[in-house]
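Retro notes
What went well: the complex prediction finally ran end to end.
Inputs used:
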Amino acid sequence: EVQLVESGGGLVQPGRSLRLSCAASGFTFDDYAMHWVRQAPGKGLEWVSGISWNSGSIGYADSVKGRFTISRDNAKNSLYLQMNSLRAEDTALYYCAKSAFGGSGIEEHAFDIWGQGTMVTVSS
Amino acid sequence: SYVLTQPPSVSVAPGKTARITCGGNNIGSKSVHWYQQKPGQAPVLVIYYDSDRPSGIPERFSGSNSGNTATLTISRVEAGDEADYYCQVWDSSSDPHWVFGGGTKLTVL
């Protein structure tokens, strides 16, 4: 079964850091680009960041650029999001998502598999 | 930055056809993907590349894209189709990034 499981969320004070992880299983992880998408409570979806299969192509939303860093470890079938200088507006459910087709960058292909998300709350 | 505009809500009676639009400047030149999200659940891909259906998605779901509007059409709507629907495109501008529409709440009357 293809599965993505996020972890690492929690309550954190403004200005602090947090590292999210996404464990992948059931597919050849290093064939696919991966993404982080977030959803603030009661709001819509917002793409946060994406990384190509070989980490050669990386992109960020303007709202997190310079504060968040995406990475992956293909040997561990894992995706990460290092979040620094967190703000209240970063409060959201963070989803890990898989690109629908392999061997590509972070563009064009839809996201065919999503995890259940990990909640990040930034508050003092 | 590229903007996708969706109606906040669409209502339809069971058995009828629901059409959810996604507006964007010359969106017909882009590939549009659609997601369904039920309360408390992760999004599910229902249409990719304008009109293709992933395996397991009923044929009742279809998509089209032309000019400045992409449309998700759900035929013979069922109570279980009630959900939020989001469109998505890749904005290949000087600052490339993924863009989601604001979402449409589909209510089955």
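What we learned: The mean pLDDT of chain A is 97.
What to try next: split runs per interface for comparison.
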